[in-house]
Amino acid sequence: MRMYDIILKKRNGGTLTEEEIRQLVEGYTKGSIPDYQMSAFLMAVYFQGMTDEETAILTDAMAHSGDMMDLSEIPGVKVDKHSTGGVGDKTTLIVAPIVAACGCHVAKMSGRGLGHTGGTVDKMESIPGMRTSLTREEFLRTAREAGLSVTGQSGNLTPADKKIYALRDVTGTVESIPLIASSIMSKKLAAGSDCILLDVKTGSGAFMKTVEDSIKLAEKMVAIGTRNGRKTAALITNMDIPLGSQIGNSLEVEEAVRTLNGEGPADLTEVCLSLATEMLFLAGKGTREACRKMAEEAVSSKEALKRLAAMVKYQGGDEECIFHPEKLGKAPIKADIEAPCDGYITNMNTEGIGISAMMLGAGRETKESELDYLAGILLKKKTGDPIKKGETIAQLLTSEEWRVSGARARFLESITVAQEKPKEEQLVYARVTEEGVTLL
Ligand code: URA
Question: How confident is the model at residue 118 (pLDDT cuts 50, 70, 90)?
Answer without folding.
Answer: confident
